[in-house]
What we know:
Pfam families: HTH_1, LysR_substrate
Family: Belongs to the LysR transcriptional regulatory family.
Oligomer: single chain
Protein name: LysR family transcriptional regulator
Domain HTH lysR-type: 1-58
Number of domains: 3
Helix content: 25-40%
Structural class: alpha/beta
Organism: Comamonas endophytica
Order of helices and strands: HHHEEHEHHEEEEHEEEEHEHEEH
Largest sheet: 5 strands, mixed
Amino acid sequence: xxxxxxxxxxxxxxxxxxxxxxxxxxxxxxxxxxxxxxxxxxxxxxxxxxxxxxxxxxxxxxxxxxxxxxxxxxxxxxxxxxxxxxxxxxxxxxxxxxxxxxxxxxxxxxxxxxxxxxxxxxxxxxxxxxxxxxxxxxxxxxxxxxxxxxxxxxxxxxxxxxxxxxxxxxxxxxxxxxxxxxxxxxxxxxxxxxxxxxxxxxxxxxxxxxxxxxxxxxxxxxxxxxxxxxxxxxxxxxxxxxxxxxxxxxxxxxxxxxxxxxxxxxxxxxxxxxxxxxxxxxxxxxxxxxxxxxxxxxxx
Length: 300
C-alpha cells in the first residue's frame, strides 16, 4: 500500500474536501481523487461518500483512517530510525502563531532552530483569527486566551499579564480616567475577530471573576497591529497584554491607566491534533516553542 496515497486520503478525510486537500498538498484535484479511488479498489470498500456538497467518511472509512494515521506515524519513525543524529529532523512543519509572538519572540530565535535541523521546512502563519489546526493542516498552534471546548491536545505554557493603555495625546484631549464611572466620558477601541460589538466594554477582574463595564466604542479592529496603532493614534483606550506594549510604555508613547481595573491574565497554550505517536519533528517543535515562549509569560 502506497504511503503517499495514505497521506492523501488522510488529508482529504481531515478537510472533508478533495479541492482543499489538493491545494494543501500541491497536487491536482484529479491526482488526489485517483489516489483515493485506488485505495478503495485495493481495499474493496468505499472509504468516502461524495456528493456535490460534501465529502464524508463511511463507517469503513472511519476505521481505516484511524489505522492509516497510526501507520503514517510509524512509517515516519521507521524512516528516521537509522539516520545519523547529526542529520537532525526532516520534513514539513506548519505552525500558526499570534502576530506579536511571531515577530518579537519566535522568529528571532528561529535561525538557531533551523541551523540545528537544516532538513526541516517550516511554514508559519501569523493570523489574528483562530485557525482550525485539523481542517487547515497545522501541526501546532500557539493560542492566547480561553480555549473553550476542543478535541485538540492542549499544553499550557503560562499567562500574559494585561494592562490598560492610552496615548498621551488622547489623555490630553479627554483627561485621565481614575474610576470606572469616569469611563462614561471616554471611548474604547474594541478588538473583535468579526468586527462585531458583541462583548464590547471595559473588562476587569474582581473577586476572581471577569466583570464587564459598558462603555462606547470609537473603533472596532480585528488585528493586533491595528489595535495598538489605533491607541497610538489617540482613537481610544485599549486593554492589551503588557508583553507587547512594554517598549511603548518605556518610550512614553503609551501611558497606563486604571491599573486597579485590568482584565484577568490571558492563558497561553500550545495546541495540536491528538495522535497516538507524534512525529519526532512535531514533538521537537513543541518543546522548542515552549522553551522560547515560557520565559516571556507569568507562571500558570
